[in-house]
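Incident review: delayed structure delivery

Summary: a single-chain prediction request sat in the queue longer than the usual turnaround. Root cause was a stuck worker, restarted by the on-call engineer. No data loss occurred. The affected request and its eventual output are reproduced below so the record is complete for anyone auditing the incident later.

Affected input:
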Amino acid sequence: MDVTFGVWALTVVGLCVLIAVDFLIGRKPHEVSTKEAGIWSAVWVALAVAFGLALLAFGGGGPAGEFFAGFITEKSLSVDNLFVFVLIMSKFAVPAPYQQRVLMVGVLMALVMRAGFIAAGAAAISAFSWVFYIFGAFLIWTAWKLVQDARSGGHDEEYEENKLLKAVERRFGVADRYHGTKLFVRENGRRVMTPMMVVMLAIGSTDVLFALDSIPAIYGLTEDPYIVFTANAFALMGLRQLYFLIGGLLKRLVHLTYGLSIILGFIGVKLVLHALHESGVHVPEIGIAVSLGFIVVVLAVTTVTSLLATRRQTARQQEPKA
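Output delivered after worker restart:
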């Protein structure tokens, strides 16, 4: 797509307005109900669909298909990331009324930092066609790692703070309790971080790490930075509501990681084939329609098999013991 500076500016302003509205609605700390989370999750999905239809009207089926494939992939990866968010909330014992504020600020931080990843990826792709080999190999390796983590019960492990977060805690110090939504307080004459600030940094930094596989994945579906950015933005901006909506459902999606590994492996192969084609090797390329259909089918099958597996497990647990 030939996206002008004006369209970029209008898109960024529009997203900022949506973020501001979301922030104003959730500015008062409260425990988010399933109804509230469901309504706003539907709103964010509807906005993403409306944006995709606008791309269809003004850009054609190609860009629209790339956006929907990228959005669905990023949304699916985000759902898997929610497992880690649950562990972080538990690790820092975040009070329920403050959880939405933590997610809101953490996701906003991740969105800003991901924009840098997207710009860097676009610059690398435009300058070096062999970057596709690296992206493809990395996604295939990530797919294998996901399978290994799923087999070892990786989601059941306790969250461990990364080195950067530990360094920040040592530098500024951390208060011994939450002080509402305050990020810094004074203790014994020293300005220190509150646990609220620490958990926001944990959410934000963790989501940036997730970008290491999600950004190459979406570049395997489209090379257009505008579509990459908007698909990521719409997938991330509804993440807070999704956390509260499907928090109880996460443990039932037992096969989700396997499904995501298949999708990432598929996109990795797609990237390698594209790189070979760019190098002059005559190999088949996978079109966006096939990619979109494959992603939707894998996610549908994964969801159904997950729910059936958990239902059978629940039934076995409820059987009377002899």
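Verification: The first helix runs from residue 5 to 25.
Action items: add queue-age alerting; document worker restart procedure.
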